[in-house]
Amino acid sequence: GKEERELQKQLRSLERKIAKYDDEKKELNEQILKTTAADEIAEIQNRLAEITREVEELENEWLELYNELEG
């Protein structure tokens, strides 16, 4: 029904956000390898930690929606 379509739309939206974060993570990991400045490395590591937290939240949200859809 309508509610199911809405849930699927939200799932796809979350998947896109997670994929974007994954791409950013790859870029940042490559930057770390090329960077020698300690402050820049620290900045990148902070951003990576932020992304990890964001992704965890999004994945939890995704799981909840998925379970709701399957339930």
Mean pLDDT over the full residue set: 96
pLDDT < 50 runs, ≥5 residues: none
Count of individual beta strands: 0
Q: Main β-sheet: number of strands, strand sense, barrel status?
A: none
- Helical percentage: over 70%
Beta-strand fraction estimate: under 5%
State the shape.
elongated
Structural category: mainly alpha
Order of helices and strands: HH
Compute the number of helices.
2
Question: Span between N and C termini?
Answer: 14 Å
Radius of gyration: 16 Å
What does this structure look like?
This protein is mostly helical. 93% of the residues lie in helices and 0% in strands. It is built from two helices and no strands. The chain has helices at 2-34, 38-70. Helix 1 (2-34) runs antiparallel to helix 2 (38-70). The chain is elongated and about 55 Å long. The two termini are 14 Å apart. The model has no long low-confidence stretch (mean pLDDT 96).
What is the structure about, briefly put?
The chain has helices spanning 2-34, 38-70.
List keywords for this structure.
mainly alpha, single chain, 2 helices, 71 residues
List the helices and strands and how they pair.
Layout lengths: L1 H33 L3 H33 L1
